[in-house]
Amino acid sequence: MRESLNLQKEGLDMSIALEITEEILQIQESGKRGIVLVMEHHKEWESVVANLQSQYSSKKKVVLQVLLTASQMRREHYEVCPVFYSCEKSGRKYPVVRDELKGADRDAVFATGLLLWGNDSQIGMIVIENYHLLDRQSQLAALPQMLQLLVNNSGPLILFIVKEFEQIPKELYPYVYFIKGRKPSVQELRICMEECLEKLYMQKKISDSFKSEIVSNLQGFHEYDIPYLFQRALLKYGDEAFGEDSKDTENRHSKKVLELVGNEKVKLLEKEQLLEWKFVKDVAFANMDVLKEHLHETGKIIDHLEEARAKGVDTPKGILILGLPGTGKSLFAHYAAAKLHKPLLRLDMGRMMGGLVGDSERNLRNAQKQAEEMAPCILWIDEIEKGFAGANGKGREEGAYLQRMLGSFLTWLQEKESSCYVIATANSNDLPPEFFRKGRFDECFCTLMPTGNEIREILKVHLNTKERRYLLENVKIDDMFNELLAIAVNEKKFMTGADAAALVSNVCRQMFLNNNNKDLKNIMIAELRKMKVFSQTNGSDIARHAIAARTTNFINASGENHTAKENISAGVKAYNERYDRAMMAFIKQEEEKLKQCN
After folding, report:
1. What pTM was estimated for this model as a whole?
2. Mean pLDDT for the chain?
3. Rounded to whole angstroms, how far apart are CA atoms 460 and 463?
4. Of 73, 297, 438, 450, which sees the most CB atoms within 10 A?
């Protein structure tokens, strides 16, 4: 039986370190002599090493610690020099120097050290810090001794510490066991948070709901980050750091500590440069009523996830939105983040593509892992079809690695249990059919060309901002929109949401340049006539998308009867219906053109 471990530090990090230590000892007892710890920071593994050193020292065995450090040999030139230490139970290190090491070539110092001490029966463990800093020549020189030690069942335990799996030579893979560091769970974060708040005398001043919000935002950090974050928040914001109310009437619920945590998360993601992070405070969104209702239901489940799981409800996975450019897909991702009060992470598939074999798959895996660590969050994958374009190619190297990426990604979508909610958007239906299989996404939606009524709603949203509201004074808005829709019908100017936003932007520009704040209707009509909208430049794309929407089982994001709204006048309804009929006739004409071309 193993002796119980004597933990030398208090805190949550020791519970994680204890788990890893126990796993290492089990692997060793099973006959494996090599352990690879894949960890980013020394604070992740120093407790594990201390535990293991205590274990071996209690048996009067020596721990040999090899510290690989970069030293400056000449100006702007660095070399990695292995330094060998003998470690006592107390953790004190004594440098060990032998004449054989002094006379060895630089590339052979590490190999010579292993040869000298590897078979010493008094050495119970060899810890190799920063193994990834050792150059390839030194690794190759030490490879025979390393393999000999790893296959020796009575030899020392060898602990490699690296930052990435790939930093271990493949020749060692059959003889080592990989352990990757992990981030604390939600329950562990809560324990650590409570301890930190108690030390800061803040525990009783914060409501339980705010504490839950803090824990939710701390996901993705290590436990040793939390004291630093809280202390920095206090230094930066003072008593307001953990305040739930603000003197600023427009931003009463400031919660400054969350602002700081969010900024630190941005820096955390910037290290890998795979995901973009932002907090979205408010987004005005006009249409897609069916999609909004689905989001509302999803939000209720995510906000009460544990209770929902206990009643057999599956964790929401996400949605796929297919639609033409400018129809609000990207805007909806921002709207969802603001509505659910969750951070928005953007995954750009172009960033996943690496230059070397395996880079793309590894980048995608790392991005998925980061997103799950940041949960609860919204993971927005923009133009997802471009990332997997060519995955159906056969017999080509590019098609093969894209197939591997696709398989890995779909498996992750199918099996993920975290509250990382995926919103994937696509401009075309060139996605592999595996995407549409039930279980990958909760639902698949499509966005169509906006109807007459939706164009009105979109224009109102963009005209009714705080800065533009003055433009609507003394304007009969329904009459103005009626004339705009009539011109659109006569000139076949069928707008997307982006076109409508651009129209309002152009109008504001002209009114400012001409110092004219009173002639909104005429300027808007003039700007519409000048514009080239989506239907005038991309009619064939509209037709292709209409065909795809009819031939798939995607849900119309706006609903089947989205043109008919209550509480509108007969005149407004007539203009809306005329616009919709004209747009449908235009789409049918474009479809006929496609048939003739084919």
Report:
1. 0.73
2. 82
3. 5
4. 450
Q: What six digits make up the tokens of 358? A: 């395996």
- Higher-confidence residue: 210 or 333? 333
**pLDDT tens, residue by residue, 173-213:** 999 999 988 888 888 888 889 888 888 877 667 888 788 87
One-letter amino acid at 421 equals Y
pLDDT at residue number 574? 93
Q: Are 231 and 186 in contact (CB under 8 A)?
A: no
| Residue 157 host element (H or E) | strand 157-162
- What is the structure's pLDDT at 63? 66
Instruction: Give the pLDDT confidence of 219-268 residue by residue, as tens digits.
Output: 888 888 899 999 999 898 887 888 876 544 344 446 888 888 878 877 77
CA angle 95, 96, 99 (to 5 degrees): 135
Half-sphere exposure of 167 (CA within 13 A, CB side): 18
Q: Which two tokens stand for residue 360?
A: 């793309």
- Mean of pLDDT values over 413-433: 87
Burial of 423 (C-beta count, 10 Å sphere; 0-12/13-18/19+) = buried
Distance CA 109, CA 80 (A): 10
* CB 133, CB 70: distance < 8 Å: yes
DSSP secondary structure code for residue 315 in this structure: P
Q: Give the span between the Cα atoms of 172 and 178, in whole angstroms.
A: 11
Which letter, b or e, does each residue of 374-389 get, where b requires 16 or more Cβ atoms within 10 Å of its Cβ?
A: bbbbbbbbbbbbebbb
By C-alpha distance, which of 460, 361, 359, 465 is closest to 403?
361
Asked if pLDDT for residue 62 goes beyond 80, the answer is no
Residue 366 or 294, more confident: 294
Task: Let me know: does 495 contact 503? Beta carbons within 8 Å.
Answer: yes
Q: Under a CB-based contact definition with an 8 Å cutoff, are residues 226 and 196 in contact?
A: yes
Nearest to 335 by CA among 380, 386, 381, 384: 380
Mind giving me the DSSP string for 395-437?
A: S-HHHHHHHHHHHHHHHHHHH--SSEEEEEEESSS-S-GGGGS
